[in-house]
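Deliverable D4.2, example record:
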Amino acid sequence: MAKAEKQFALIIAIVAILLVASLAGNVVLLGFLNNAGKRVSAAETKAAEAERQAAAYKAQAEELEAAAEKAAAAVAVSTGEPIETVPTEETATPAPAAENTAAAATATPKPTATPTTGPYGKSTLDYIPKDDEKLQEKKSLTVISSVDLNIRSGPDTKYKQVATVQTGTEMKASAYTLGWFLVEYKNDTYGWANGMYLFDEWLFDFGKDTWLQDVSPAEEYLEQPEVIKVTAENANARSGPQTDKTLVGRIPKDTEVVWLGTDGDWRLVNFKQPESTTRVFGWIHKSNFK
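Output generated by the structure prediction step:
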C-alpha cells in the first residue's frame, strides 16, 4: 500500500512539473508575440513617417519648379527673348488665309519643305516644281496686271507673299502648274506668279496655259503692253478676231483693258470680268475704242 502511494505521488509530481513547464512556455510565447507586435507597430509608424516626409519633399520640389518657371518667364520678359515651348496640335501655326484675289480653279498642290540652297538660289519656296512641271528652257513673260503683281512661295493665293513686281516687268519662267508660273523675278531669286497676269506670244504654242487655251493668237504683238479704255457702252470680247467667234465677255464703258496685239481691225486684250476678280484674254473690235 505504501508503494502504491509513492507511485501515485510520483505521478502527481510529474504532472505538476509538466503543467509548470507548459505554463512557462506559454509565458515565453506570449512575450515573444508581444515583442513582435511592438516591432511591427514601430515599423508601420516609421513607414508612415517616411511616406509623410516623401510627400512633403515632393510638394517642396513642385513649389521650387513653379518658382523657377516664374523666374524664367520674368527673365524672358525683361530681355525680350521668347520662352521656348513644344508645339501641340492646339498651338500649331494655322494655314495662311486666302486673299480676296482670283486663283486657278483647281486644287492647290501640297507644299514641300522650304529650300535654302539648290537650283533656285536664294529663294524661299514652299512648293518645289516636280520634274514634269519644269520647262525645257527658261521663257520670257511680261507682267500685264494693272497694278503691282504679287509673287508667292507657291502656286496659289494661299501661299505667303514674298515680293511684288511692277506691271510691264519682264521675267523668266522655268516651271508651270495649275495656271501659275515659277519666275525669276530678280537675280537668282524665284517665286510663283499667277498666269492670268502674265503674257508672251509663245504661250499660244505652249498648250498648257489655262488662260489662253481657247484664244486665237495675234498677227502682231506690241513691244510693250498698253492700257487703253473702252469707250463703247458695251464691248463684246471674243475668242478670236471675228464676230462669229465665241463670246468670252462683255466689257462696260470706261473699263481699262491691257492691249497686247492686233489682227486687222481687232485688238487682243486682257481684261477683268465684270463683278469678278478673274482676268481673261479676248478680242475686241477697234470700233469700241477711240
